Amino acid sequence: MRWVTLLVLLTPAVARADAGRLLTDHSFDTDPGGQLVVDAGLLVGMPAALPAGLSTGIAAGITRTCGCHFSYGARVGWSRVAEPGTAWLVTQDDFRLRAVGAIRHDAGRGSIALRLGLGTTIVHEVRDREQGMRAGLTGSELQTTATRALPAGELEAVVGIKIAGEWWLVASAGPSLDVLSGSARLGWVSQLGVGWQP
Amino acid sequence: MATLRFAALVALVGCGDLEGFGGQAPPLAEVQVAVTGDASLVPATADLRVAMVWGEQWLVEPICILPPENDAAAAVIAAGCRDPFGFVAARTAANVAAAPGETVSIDLFTLPGADVLVGDLTARVAYASLVVYDDRDHSGNLELARPNRIPDRGPMGGAGDLPTNLDDQVLGASFISMTQPDQRVAYREGVFSPVAAFYPRAGCGDPPPAFSVLAAGGFTAQAAIDATLAGTLPKEDPATCAEGALADSVISVPIQDPANVSEIACSERTTDSSVRYREPDPTDDPPDFANRLSACVHSPSFGAPSSTIELVVSGRSEDSCVGLTHYILKGCREGPDCGTPDWDHSLNPPTWWPCGT
């Protein structure tokens, strides 16, 4: 028994690694890819013109990176919110059109950026009179529609990580601002999606 | 070209103002009411208003439509029974100021609730009467009252929380009784059942879907009795019938002697319209019968005469609404024939019991 214990204790001393190393200094090196990044994903944010509710939808963008820390591009998004009030069921579709510019820093597989987007949010509003269908209302008494383009923008922190080959996981969030009837409305927006950098 | 495209985009995206939850909400319906009739019946200091009142489903007590058993019973029935064919108010939906000879508009911002819609989800209807009244308490609303039945220990259900005296004075209504010509507001959902006996208008057209204004000439009490015995509904004269849209109709409310229309503001308990009986408990204090009429009668029956004697008591003469209170020595709240009685004082009636055992 004593000899068996001694043998067990001495065994690690004679163990050795494989001849080749699993990890090297270049194990996490990535292909820097091209200058264009296309991304798309889910969008959640405050409605541009409605004081209540959560607007959810999708967004996509294209960004051109250059050798420096600056990148620029364009983004589009659509989101919808539907909220009941005392008299109206309000549905608003927000179409976001933005020109974006970002200050970016890459670190290994990751990238962090501060992105400023400016443009317009086109809001299409449909209001249905509560109980109007049951009451037999028709026309504008039953439903009203309106469309407005609002000056808008947002400042987002963007975090990306290269997950496989040319594919990125991209998340962003930050405050937004739009101007409705001459007054500024502060909100927020966040996005989560995947990017492709061929 | 680019400028044109931009202009087109601006034109496209600038259509209308975003209102959100704000802006003016159109009423769900608008009812036009003309106050007609003898304006001299309106008190000089009257705060005249028009209310729209939804009606409820309620059945009159059997004793009120059967021949009276004796003179005392006839007096109690006269003092305690409302019009068996009368409109029974459930809830005031809307009010607006009015004046004799003028037409006013009542905007409705809510639909009738399920408590005043009669029928199932596939076919239900509600009816309303337009009531002209003197808003004596200046509350801006037509308050409803209930019969002043003698208080009981058990639950009364329905309109038990309403007052027994009404400050407001009713001066006219568009729908008073099925035995009189009427104009009523109808609200229908789903199909319409032609055999529904809820303020029936047999012989007239179905009410249109949603809101509408209906009219009928009324039927006689005897016609209603004959039709009931035949298992049908009493027929209206088709020449007196009308069904129209709210927008195309003006409901006329003639001002009348208040004595003829005061019942319009009286609601009834809505549990199931059945008679609730009281227990004359010998251990309790005697009920207060002051200013009430009472009679001892056999329990009313549409079949073989009942051997049960009950005490029936009217309301007080100063009450706004009429009603009856029933006592039996042996039985249950539901009646004397309830199987195992909840009480039996037939061998030891209270000292105040005026009837036989």
Question: What characteristics describe this protein?
Answer:
heterodimer; A: 198 residues; Porin; 9% helix; elongated; B: 2 domains; 8-stranded antiparallel beta sheet; 4-stranded mixed beta sheet; globular
Report on this structure.
The complex is a heterodimer of chains A (198) and B (357). Chain A contains two helices and eight strands. With 198 residues, chain A is mainly β. Chain A has a single domain, classed as Porin (Beta Barrel), CATH 2.40.160.20. In chain A, strands 1-2-3-4-5-6-7-8 form an eight-stranded antiparallel barrel. Chain B has two domains: 29-72 and 83-265, no CATH class; 277-344, no CATH class. Chain B starts with a helix and ends in a 13-residue tail after the last strand. Chain B is built from four helices and 17 strands. Helix content of chain B is 10%, strand content 29%. At the A-B interface, strand 4, strand 5, helix 2 and strand 6 of A face helix 1 of B.
In short:
The complex is a heterodimer of chains A (198) and B (357). Chain A is mainly beta and 198 residues long.
Strand content of chain B: 25-35%
Extract low-pLDDT stretches of chain B: none
CATH class of chain A: Mainly Beta
Largest interface: A-B, 32 and 25 residues
Shape of chain B: globular
Task: Bin the helical content of chain B.
Answer: under 10%
Give me the count of strands of chain B.
17
Oligomer: heterodimer
Distance between the termini of chain B: 104 Å
Silhouette of chain A: elongated
Q: Average pLDDT across residues of chain A?
A: 88
Distance between the termini of chain A: 63 Å
* CATH third-level topology of chain A: Porin
Order of helices and strands of chain B: HEEHEEEEEEEHEEHEEEEEE
Number of strands of chain A: 8
SSE series of chain A: HEEEEEHEEE
The gyration radius over C-alpha positions of chain B equals 25 Å
Number of helices of chain A: 2
List the helices and strands and how they pair.
The complex is a heterodimer of chains A (198) and B (357).
Chain A (H helix, E strand, L loop, with lengths): L1 H13 L21 E10 L9 E11 L4 E15 L3 E20 L2 E20 L2 H4 L7 E22 L2 E14 L2 E14 L2
Antiparallel strand pairs in A: 1-2, 1-8, 2-3, 3-4, 4-5, 5-6, 6-7, 7-8
Chain B lengths: L1 H12 L15 E9 L10 E8 L15 H10 L8 E9 L5 E6 L9 E3 L2 E12 L34 E5 L8 E9 L19 E7 L4 H9 L12 E3 L5 E6 L2 H4 L15 E2 L13 E7 L10 E8 L7 E5 L1 E2 L11 E2 L13
Parallel strand pairs in B: 1-11, 12-15
Antiparallel strand pairs in B: 1-4, 2-3, 2-6, 5-6, 6-7, 6-8, 8-9, 9-10, 13-14, 14-15, 16-17
